Amino acid sequence: MVVFYHYEWVLKEYTNRPSWIADGGFKTLGAAGVDLFFVISGFIMVYTTTKKAGAADALDFLRKRATRIYPLYWVWTTALLLLWLVGVALKSHHYQPSFLIHSYLLLPFFDGRNYHPFLSQGWTLSFEMLFYIVFSIGILINFKRWKLPFLCASFALLALFSLVLPEHNGLKYLFSEPIIIEFLFGVLAAQVLLRLASDSNEDSMKRLAVALIVIGALGFLSTGFYHAADYLRFVIYGVPALLMVTGAAMLGSSRCPRWLVYLGDASYSIYLTHAFFSMTYAVVLKKYPRLGHFPGDLTIIVAGIVTIAGASLTYPLVERPLMRALSPKKLRASEIDSFGVAKRSPEITEAQTLV
User: Fold this and answer.
1) Residue 163 carries which DSSP code?
2) What PANTHER family does the database record attribute to this sequence (predicted)?
3) CB neighbours of 287 closer than 8 A, spacing ≥ 6?
């Protein structure tokens, strides 16, 4: 979803080709992949830590989360940095050392326009790490029965604290963005599912699951017919994502095509690397403007598919060897999903897509 969204921007920036996708209200729908991912992330963290409690488990959780997020992000941030240093990419941009340091640490830094790091799509990872830190504190104090109240109270306190921070402060932005609520939607979905799983009729669960998925999908599609303020993003995208994730999880171990499972596992690599493909396409368009004369919608679809296919190759070539090197020897890379946790059940691992 995010991949296609970025190609909509490239098309409008470098060509004058009309596009129903880019010109219509559906142009913002691709960005909802981030919201879906946040809900999935909150769901999986609850589902995979039901027996975790205490200092040792909290530290282990945080170590695994950091290992999952940072190394691969550093690899591709460094790749982009090298391209910038040799004058291949981002030629018109100038970056201060302090900005680059903040980018590597995933600490938001206002650059005069926004709080995005050097590898722009990394902005979502700052929120991921914030959620993981707060979640690890919950594990530390053994919040098994009080996950949602604890997390809600924690993020409410952080939002209140942000009020005393100066304008354009990175932590003020991080603590006050409503999009963080989408992680809580995922937590809610997991707790509801864990409670229903033990005492619900299987047939009725499946009917309810299908209904939730359909309603959620319609909710996503309806966003193409109106414009809402960005601070309402957690409502217009987060609520449909909540319904779809809950429904998909309730379906249980429904079979998915192997290629779809693969794309789910490769989603983090695709997310981090797809911008290299879209930047390359933008450079080609600037050098050979005639290539921008193809139909706009066809361009977005074909470029998006090619990018997903190409970026997914970085998963076996880069991500899996890296995770194999950083993971316990008892787990093979094939046993580690896109969130860096041991695969437990199909309903978790098959729902992973940020693309």
Assistant:
1) T
2) ACETYLTRANSFERASE, BLR2367 PROTEIN
3) none
Looking at residues 173-199, what average pLDDT do you find? Answer: 90
How far, in Å, are 188, 194, 196, 203, 246 from residue 200 at the CA level?
Answer: 18, 11, 6, 9, 15
146 neighbors 153 (Cβ within 8 angstroms): no
Please report, for residues 87, 93, 143, 299, 332, the alpha-carbon distance to residue 287 in angstroms, rounded to integers and kept in the order given: 16, 19, 57, 17, 44
Compute the distance between CA of residue 90 and CA of residue 166 in angstroms, rounded to an integer.
30
Own/partner long-range contacts of 82-91 (Cβ < 8 Å, ≥24 apart): 89/279
Cβ neighbours, 10 Å, residue 93: 9
Distance in angstroms (rounded) separating the CA atoms of residues 210 and 230: 29
Enter the tokens of residue 342: 């041991």
Cβ-contact 41, 131 below 8 angstroms:
yes
Q: What is the reported pLDDT for 173?
A: 96
- Give the integer Cα–Cα distance in Å for 286 and 296: 16
The answer to whether 155 and 134 have CB atoms below 8 angstroms apart is: yes
Of 158, 143, 232, 243, the residue nearest 192 (C-alpha): 243
pTM: 0.86
Render pLDDT for 113-123 as a digit per residue (tens, 0 to 9). 899 999 999 99
d(CA 243, CA 221): 14
**Cβ-proximal residues to 330 (8 Å cutoff; 6+ apart), any chain:** none
pLDDT at 343 over 80: no
Question: Over the chain, what is the mean pLDDT?
Answer: 84
What pLDDT, on a 0 to 100 scale, did the predictor assign at position 145? 82
For CA atoms 166, 171, 175, 179, the dihedral sign is: positive
Q: Is the dihedral of CA 350, 351, 352, 355 positive or negative?
A: positive
Per-residue pLDDT, 155: 97
pLDDT digits (tens, 9 = 90+) for 60-85: 999 999 999 999 999 999 999 999 99
Of residues 160 and 222, the one with the higher pLDDT is 160
Partners of residue 342 on adjacent β-strands: 336
The model's pLDDT over 272-288, given as tens digits with 9 standing for 90+, comes to 999 898 888 887 877 77
Q: Any idea where the domains of the chain sit in the sequence?
A: 2-349
